[in-house]
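call fold target=Hypoxanthine phosphoribosyltransferase
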Amino acid sequence: MHNDIKEILFTTEQIEAKAAELAKQLEIDYADKKPILLGLLKGSIPFIGDLMKHMNIPVQIEFMDVSSYHGGTTSSGQVKILKDLDTSVENRHIIIVEDIVDTGFTLDKVIALLKHRGAASVEVVTMLDKPEGRVVVMEPKYIGFNIPKAFVVGYGLDYDEYYRNLPYVGILKEEVYMN
């Protein structure tokens, strides 16, 4: 797997330090709100784990499995909800936890759905932001790192369900996904 990586963008240590920094900001901003950390599966799992272990306020954890990629390297433009929330979001403060914000298309649909369901507030914390990929106007409130327009894997991010277990974020060699 490591041989398929063109360049490491962020090490395990850099990611963990950034997660701790973001967690402290969330802790301040949501001190009295008992938010729901909503992880979007599957890529958010390492990041939500690192975030929540640094947050010293009451939080609930929920997950949704929402996809617009369906195995490729670009968004299909169609959002599918494969697993919905188990808890009502009515009058709750929701923090969507994402591994990466690229086109913004999936997040735009999820945010609209949560607001429709009566959430008191909805914000996004993302480990990675790729603004050059955006097709929907949106700006996550909490951003770990900005990245260039490249196909990245590791720390939850995948290509065809592989590479999620890499402990760093790296750029995948083009020959891996161009075959």
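return ok
Strands lie at 5-10, 36-41, 60-67, 80-83, 93-101, 121-129, 142-146, 152-153, 169-172. The longest helix spans residues 12-29.
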